[in-house]
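User: Let's play a game. I give you a shape written as tokens, and you guess the letters that built it. Ready? Here's round one.
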């Protein structure tokens, strides 16, 4: 069999990785009420732009206001109780100190001293209990203040209302989402990079993003996140890119095409037409031995560039690779070299 052969070469170039994906919002939040109450008012509608902390809806405050007033009264009563307990404790403390001196002098009986000591301990315990009642009452009041604050539903960040649920008069519940808000001044694009290519991706990497809806526009996206785990099913790594969308021209869910240029480096390559069979990232080449016989080798491929196929694994670079005529070759078949390519 007449064949043409060559040797693998080392070439330095930057690989380009192309992929398609869809855009997603930079942040998405589902807002659920923290308290149950009737809906009194909506301040926004779907599609409205909102700022962080802006009121989105108001729930009925009535029940929580009643609870707050009752809690305030409990705090006042508990604080009055502390004042009384402090007065009783102060009086009993003075008596206790006086009786301790009298006991030392032998002027009172043991039973009289024990009676005063018991009263001292009781008033001390009573003061501690009164102070505990104040703390409990204040905790209850703080809880009602929080619940009152929760009746005003607020935006957690700047964005747009993408979903609003409920009607005036309906009961809002922590079990039912009320709003969804999306931040779209920045958008994300997820790309899945082969584990063989991920070596060149860093936090400084960028990708050029084009849109099916706006084919004449291109945006530069920067790496925001690189997954630390390889997906075993696809042998790829998720890389999240982010780009600015301050004009809010682009929408979440748009189809995009991304081109990622990896850093320039040296690669072992063979002419593309020396790969005779291909299955995803695995191909087959034929190499010639010194005895002018050919055998096949499986190689791991890393894409193509400038008419060459990149070889990740399988060749050491010294083989004599068959370029043409390989489809008729068999293992161990004798060949005659009619051309050598550099």
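Assistant: Ready! My guess for every position:
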């Amino acid at each position: 069999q007449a064949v043409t052969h060559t040797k693998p070469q080392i070439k330095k170039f930057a690989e380009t990785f192309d992929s398609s994906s869809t855009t997603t919002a930079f942040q998405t939040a589902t807002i659920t009420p923290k308290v149950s109450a009737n809906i009194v008012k909506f301040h926004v509608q779907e599609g409205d732009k909102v700022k962080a902390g802006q009121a989105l809806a108001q729930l009925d405050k009535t029940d929580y206001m009643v609870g707050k007033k009752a809690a305030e009264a409990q705090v006042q009563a508990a604080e009055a109780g502390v004042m009384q307990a402090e007065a009783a404790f102060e009086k009993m403390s003075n008596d206790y100190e006086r009786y301790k001196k009298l006991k030392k002098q032998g002027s009172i009986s043991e039973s009289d001293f024990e009676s005063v000591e018991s009263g001292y301990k009781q008033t001390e315990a009573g003061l501690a209990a009164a102070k505990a009642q104040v703390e409990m009452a204040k905790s209850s009041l703080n809880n009602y203040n929080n619940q009152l604050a929760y009746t005003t539903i607020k935006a957690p960040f700047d964005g747009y209302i993408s979903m609003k649920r409920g009607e005036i008069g309906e009961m809002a519940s922590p079990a039912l989402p009320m709003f969804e808000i999306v931040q779209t001044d920045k958008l994300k694009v997820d790309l899945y990079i082969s584990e063989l290519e991920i070596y060149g991706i860093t936090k400084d990497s960028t990708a050029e993003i084009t849109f099916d809806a706006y084919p004449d526009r291109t945006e530069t996206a920067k790496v925001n996140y690189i997954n630390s785990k390889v997906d075993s099913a696809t042998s790829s790594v998720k890389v999240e890119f982010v780009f600015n969308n301050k004009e809010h021209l682009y929408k979440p869910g748009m189809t995009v095409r991304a081109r990622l240029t990896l850093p320039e480096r040296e690669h072992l390559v063979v002419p593309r037409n020396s790969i005779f069979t291909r299955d995803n990232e695995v191909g087959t080449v034929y190499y010639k031995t010194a005895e002018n016989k050919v055998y096949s080798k499986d190689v791991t491929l890393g894409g193509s560039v400038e008419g060459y196929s990149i070889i990740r694994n399988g060749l050491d670079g010294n083989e004599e690779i068959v370029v043409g005529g390989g489809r008729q070759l068999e293992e161990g078949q004798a060949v005659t070299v009619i051309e050598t390519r550099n």
